[in-house]
TrEMBL record:
<feature type="region of interest" description="Disordered">
    <location>
        <begin position="301"/>
        <end position="344"/>
    </location>
</feature>
<comment type="similarity">
    <text>Belongs to the myoviridae tail sheath protein family.</text>
</comment>
<dbReference type="InterPro" id="IPR035089">
    <property type="entry name" value="Phage_sheath_subtilisin"/>
</dbReference>
<dbReference type="InterPro" id="IPR052042">
    <property type="entry name" value="Tail_sheath_structural"/>
</dbReference>
<dbReference type="Pfam" id="PF04984">
    <property type="entry name" value="Phage_sheath_1"/>
</dbReference>
<protein>
    <submittedName>
        <fullName>Phage tail sheath family protein</fullName>
    </submittedName>
</protein>
<feature type="compositionally biased region" description="Basic and acidic residues">
    <location>
        <begin position="310"/>
        <end position="321"/>
    </location>
</feature>
<feature type="domain" description="Tail sheath protein subtilisin-like">
    <location>
        <begin position="430"/>
        <end position="557"/>
    </location>
</feature>
Length: 679
């Protein structure tokens, strides 16, 4: 233990020092459950690959703005104070044809396109780039290649003789150049030759070596691809850069890379861009062949001005092809049971997102996505009967009208069949949460349902790993430049941010309720007191309008078990289980002794003691709040023979205060009001 740590005296000379017992034991660190997962429709970003996102600008640069509800949900999460999110873009199986393809080149004075090529050995491969992610977002991409003259130096006229150089380097002396001290360049670099008349061609550095010249001096030598012309007076070391710009209307992303123009260069153009760019990747048709054949980028003499790009194949948005299996990982017709114990199946959609190890919350804002479909046709009622006459049968009710475009892409909960489909999808997500027993699935009461219909909808769920929120909240566009029109956003996204922010600020015992929804400007339905009285006991968490905004009034799960009715209790128990699992791994393969069990008990008690101080338990003392046992009764000899150690942990979680009951007592000439708290 080092000095200044507060656990012992300062250390002096080297030697063996005694450390007091227990000085190295620290309180176990609880597992954090504030990371939220979002799965939905986006115009860009990798499909079926969860990406960690730490802010709204980071999300915008990676996934952009599209027709789905995903950007609204993520922006609502960060607006509440959430800090960690995993975002997964859902989509149909990958298709290369859906990626934008760009060619590098330039137009001549006759407006003819001249492609830039990688050349050598009688071959010429046009340089092409492919958008990193599929979609029409990349149709405005531009890629610019620029050759920039660098340091210029004279060709040495007093160099050692060719015979001396050849003997020292083992290379053809007429292809050797000795650069001045301090000028260094790797193999694959480009040199521009200058003569008395100006341009004298280009040369490539094929190899570098450290040779010994007369007088025992060692010098850096470059081996060129061809001898210098006799008229060469100076050399210019040429640098190259690639600039990529997506020209996104919500805020452009610009990338720049210093590159080499030969595969021999350590920052070969194709490799450097492939490793660093989030926007483009080299088209495999040229990149692999160019590297294998050592083909260099063809540059003219004099060096060309910046070389631009043009779109050779437009990317395609395939929103209409996103199906149920893309959202859920498999269609509803297939059972969600774990039929892949070896983990060999390729997970997609929400199933893939559920594999993230530190996920604590999960919401799917575009779960009702049904593909971009035309607007439904309304059924016109027949002409009304003449005045004074009543119809013999009731007039047919017109079908619901849905607006074409993005709104038409969602299931309509007012249509019974579509409501049944949506609820089945939500149940599948809840089943994933039940199977993982690690995160909470945050669901939304579907739009357009009355309070009684919402109560009927809720009857299809019974899980302590799920919570429901109602009603939907209006959010202004999260990016400047868009029309300032509020759009309804899933309330679960606001709840996810509130839950995460409360955990970060006050820990798990602080219930994620009684908070205003930051950024919400309107609400889909104003819930009356009677409707709230109906929904709250059912475990539906309601946002209610107040003077300052819309307040989340509860933090309940969808469990019918009273022990796990409160979200804080469920999350606390999950945290304890995950933390004990992580913090107890060191016990494996340790000798099973009474001393080991005692240390393990102390280790667990440290964790529970910290939670007791944070107010996680209902007892007034530690003894009333938790116990930890690993005695001989739990670990008899037959259990020891199996290499097993049994630890029993009991806790008494505290529940959030939900009601204040006022007791009115009327006397002969007075009225007494007493306040009594009730959970």
């Amino acid at each position: 233990m080092t000095a200044g740590m507060g656990t012992g005296p300062p250390l002096g000379a080297p030697g063996v020092y005694h450390v007091p017992p227990g000085a190295e034991r620290t309180e176990p660190r609880p597992v954090a459950l504030d990371a939220a997962g979002f799965a939905g429709v986006a115009p860009r970003g990798p499909v079926d690959e969860p990406l960690a996102v730490g802010s709204w600008p980071e999300y915008l640069a990676r996934f952009g703005l599209g027709p789905g509800l995903l950007p609204l949900a993520v922006s609502a999460f960060f607006a509440q104070g959430g800090r960690r999110a995993y975002v997964l873009r859902v989509g149909p199986p990958p298709s290369t044809e859906a990626h934008t393809l760009l060619g590098q080149g330039a137009y001549d004075t006759g407006a003819h396109w001249i492609p830039l090529c990688a050349t050598g050995n009688g071959r010429a491969l046009p340089v092409r780039w492919q958008a990193r992610d599929e979609g029409a977002w990349a149709n405005g991409l531009t890629v610019t290649l620029t050759a920039v003259p660098g340091r210029r130096f004279a060709v040495e006229s007093t160099a050692p003789s060719p015979r001396t150089l050849a003997a020292a380097s083992g290379a053809d002396a007429d292809r050797l150049v000795l650069p001045p001290a301090g000028v260094r360049a790797p193999a694959g670099s480009l040199l521009h030759v200058r003569t008395a008349r100006g341009h004298g061609g280009i040369r490539w550095i094929e190899a570098t070596s450290d040779i010994e010249v007369p007088n025992g001096v060692r010098r850096l030598a470059w081996t060129l691809d061809a001898p210098l012309p006799e008229a060469a007076r100076s050399l210019v070391l040429v640098h190259a850069s690639v600039t990529v710009d997506d020209h996104a209307p919500e805020g452009p992303t610009v990338e720049s890379f210093d590159v080499g123009l030969s595969p021999r260069h350590p920052r070969w153009l194709a490799t450097a861009v492939a490793d660093g760019s989030l926007l483009i990747a080299p088209d495999p048709a040229w990149a692999e062949d160019a590297a294998a054949g050592d083909l260099r980028i063809a540059l003219t003499d004099p060096l060309p001005s910046p070389v631009g790009s043009r779109v050779e194949r437009h990317g395609e948005d395939r929103y209409g092809d996103i199906g149920e299996e893309d959202l859920l990982g498999r269609p509803l017709s297939e059972p969600p049971d774990d039929d892949d114990p070896a983990g060999e199946r390729e997970y997609r959609g929400v199933e893939r997102l559920a594999q993230v190890a530190d996920l604590g919350l999960l919401t799917v804002p575009d779960l009702a996505w049904n593909g971009v479909v035309p607007a439904r046709e309304t059924e016109e009622p027949p002409d009304p009967p003449p005045e004074g006459f009543a119809p013999c049968v009731p007039l047919p009710r017109p079908a619901l009208l849905r607006t074409a475009g993005a709104d038409a892409a969602y299931l309509d909960a007012r249509v019974p069949d579509e409501l049944a489909t949506l609820r089945a999808r939500q149940q599948r997500v809840v089943q994933l949460a039940d199977a993982a027993q690690r995160f909470i699935a945050l669901t939304d009461v579907p739009q357009g349902l009355s309070a009684q219909a919402a109560a009927n909808w809720r009857s299809g769920f019974d899980s302590g790993y799920a919570a429901a929120y109602h009603p939907w909240l209006g959010l202004l566009p999260p990016s400047p430049g868009l029309p300032p029109t509020a759009r309804l956003s899933p309330p679960s996204a606001f709840a996810a941010g509130i839950i995460a922010a409360r955990e970060i600020a006050a820990g798990l015992p602080a219930g994620p309720a009684n908070e205003l929804a930051a950024g919400a400007v309107t609400i889909a339905d104003r819930i009356s007191a009677a409707e709230h009285d109906l929904l709250h006991p059912l475990g539906i968490n309601v946002f209610l309008p107040e003077r300052d905004g819309f307040r989340l009034t509860a933090a309940r799960t969808l469990s019918h078990d009273p022990a796990y009715r409160q979200l804080t209790v469920r999350r606390l128990m999950t945290m304890l289980r995950l933390t004990l699992d992580r913090e107890s791994q060191w016990v494996v393969f340790e000798p099973h002794t009474v001393a080991l069990r005692a240390v393990l008990v102390l280790h667990v008690e440290d964790l529970l003691r910290g939670q007791f101080r944070a107010g996680a338990f209902s007892g007034a003392t530690e003894a009333e709040s938790f116990f930890v046992r690993a005695d001989a009764d739990l670990n008899p000899p037959e259990s020891l023979a199996l290499g097993r150690i049994v630890l029993e942990v009991g806790v008494a979680p505290s529940s959030p205060l939900e009601f204040l009951v006022l007791r009115l007592t009327r006397g002969d000439d007075s009225l007494d009001i007493q306040e009594a708290a009730r959970g």
